[in-house]
Design brief:
With 289 residues, the chain is an alpha/beta fold. The chain has one domain: NAD(P)-binding Rossmann-like Domain (Rossmann fold). 46% of the residues lie in helices and 13% in strands. The chain has helices spanning 17-28, 40-51, 68-82, 108-136, 148-151, 159-182, 227-234, 243-255, 266-280, and strands at 8-12, 32-37, 58-62, 87-90, 140-145, 186-191, 197-198, 240-241, 260-261.
Length: 289
């Protein structure tokens, strides 16, 4: 898909971070945009901002991706408004207050929160939109947001997040193969934001969750609210990738017809290669990647 002008794009998690930047860049490219998010106040503010950028129509749809009925209602709204969807970004995601905690100490509600948003949010998006996109018979792309952490190699300090992003990678690979059996009009792609840690508020997102996912007082407290806080507190010397960079990279990859939207990084490539070689050699995992 070389040209986004006149196309209809749906972006979940569209009111902040990478999602917000995708909405802005798509609008600038002439697309009609449905900004989907769970926060109605922030959503309307972003809608006004994005609406001023391009010539296409922009709508805001409040949606809880953990609920299948909510995502189905979102799809109903979008198709009623635009009649078609050409770009579906299953982008909504959360981080949790799990840094440096042991798997066996993490509450089950933390697992349910991460799984329901990061995995089932993608599944619900596929179920609600893909059949109608296929039936529409137009060229389209379904883009699921994963992470190199879990999606390609798992870091030991974020077990829930890594597990959910591993699932997203697997789901997207399967989706691509199944879409190929349906013809050549609809395809999948998987986005790995980077190449460095992305400067978003996802570290604090675990604090904002429905009470169904809270077992005890103080459970949602997080060690770091921003990526800059993480760097300052830990003294780590790493670069940050801005959400605007991720959006530009993602849209360029979609235009080029790529499945793996994976930024080049010598460090990441070396770690992925080491893991792959270890698997092929049937070796035990090292003590640290």
């Amino acid at each position: 898909m070389q040209d986004f002008a006149g196309k209809v794009a749906v972006v979940t998690g569209g009111a902040s971070g990478v999602g917000k930047c995708l909405c802005a860049d798509l609008a600038a490219a002439g697309a009609h945009v449905a900004i989907v998010d769970i926060n109605p106040e922030r959503l309307e503010s972003v809608r006004r901002e994005v609406d001023a950028i391009g010539t296409g129509r922009v709508i805001a749809v409040t949606c809880d991706v953990t609920k299948e009925a909510s995502v189905t209602a979102c799809a109903d709204t979008v198709f009623a408004e635009f009649g078609a969807v050409h770009l579906l970004f299953n982008n909504a995601g959360v981080g949790l207050g799990e840094a440096q905690r042991k798997i066996w100490d993490l509450p089950a509600s933390d697992w349910r929160w991460g799984i329901d948003v990061n995995i089932l949010g993608v599944v619900h998006g596929i179920k609600a939109f893909v059949p109608r996109m296929i039936a529409g018979g137009e060229q389209g792309v379904v883009i699921n947001t994963s992470s190199t952490n879990g999606g390609l190699r798992s870091l030991p300090n974020t077990p829930i997040y890594a597990a959910t992003k591993a699932a997203v990678t697997s789901i997207t690979e399967v989706l691509q193969q199944q879409l190929l059996r349906e013809g050549d009009m609809l395809r999948a792609a998987i986005l790995f934001p980077g190449p460095h840690t992305v400067n978003t508020g996802i570290l604090a997102s675990g604090e904002v969750r429905p009470t169904d996912y809270v077992e005890h007082e103080g459970q949602t407290k997080v060690a770091y609210r921003t990526m800059e806080d993480l760097l300052k507190t830990t003294g780590l010397k790493m670069k940050l990738t801005e959400p605007e960079e991720v959006s530009a990279f993602a849209l360029a990859g979609i235009r080029a017809g790529k499945f793996w939207l994976l930024p080049e990084s010598a460090d990441n490539d070396a770690l992925i290669a080491a893991r792959t070689e270890q698997i092929l050699a049937r070796q035990n995992p090292p003590s640290a990647w």
